[in-house]
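re: the backbone from monday

yeah here it is again, tokenized this time
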């Protein structure tokens, strides 16, 4: 998961996701009304394996392996705060969002010009159309590079071109994203 994807995930949560494997398993059990069979089906393991993971008996409990920990994490993230995520996504698509980043950004210009690509801290309001395009690309399985292109086009228009009032027709360079955060609402 790249920086942009992580930033979107952080923006769509109001509470932190459980961090330990034990807490994540408790969440999955609660989400499936205590059914170890349903949790086992979701994780692709046997019901007995899930029972071993959650047992409190001394010596009977076995921790999940690295592959199972990834499966547990993915299952929890897919089910974490679905209504909150839907509300924040709808709000971002309707009203836009604020994008905070530190990345190499600028026009592809002659060396030494003030618009030469360099690492910049940028905080910029972006419209709902950008949020819709970004979420649609993400839903379609777009990678970090495609999401970077969407944000580069939007940032170039809003940040350098001042909403289309200047610097027409110049190519935007946006790369080396160190972090990306989104503020919705």
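seq for it, each position gets an aa:
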């Amino acid at each position: 998961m790249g920086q942009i994807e992580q930033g979107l995930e952080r923006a769509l949560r109001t509470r932190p996701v459980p961090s330990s494997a034990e807490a994540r398993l408790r969440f999955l059990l609660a989400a499936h009304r205590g059914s170890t069979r349903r949790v086992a089906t979701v994780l692709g393991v046997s019901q007995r394996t899930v029972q071993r993971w959650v047992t409190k008996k001394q010596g009977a409990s076995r921790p999940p392996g690295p592959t199972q920990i990834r499966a547990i994490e993915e299952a929890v993230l897919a089910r974490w705060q679905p209504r909150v995520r839907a509300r924040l996504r709808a709000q971002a698509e309707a009203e836009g969002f604020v994008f905070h980043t530190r990345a190499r950004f600028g026009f592809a210009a002659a060396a030494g010009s003030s618009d030469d690509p360099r690492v910049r801290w940028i905080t910029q309001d972006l419209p709902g159309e950008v949020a819709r395009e970004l979420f649609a690309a993400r839903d379609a399985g777009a990678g970090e590079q495609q999401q970077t292109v969407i944000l580069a086009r939007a940032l170039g228009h809003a940040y350098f071109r001042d909403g289309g009032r200047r610097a027409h027709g110049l190519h935007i360079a946006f790369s080396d994203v160190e972090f990306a955060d989104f503020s919705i609402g």
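The first strand starts at residue 97 and ends at 107. The chain has a mean pLDDT of 86.
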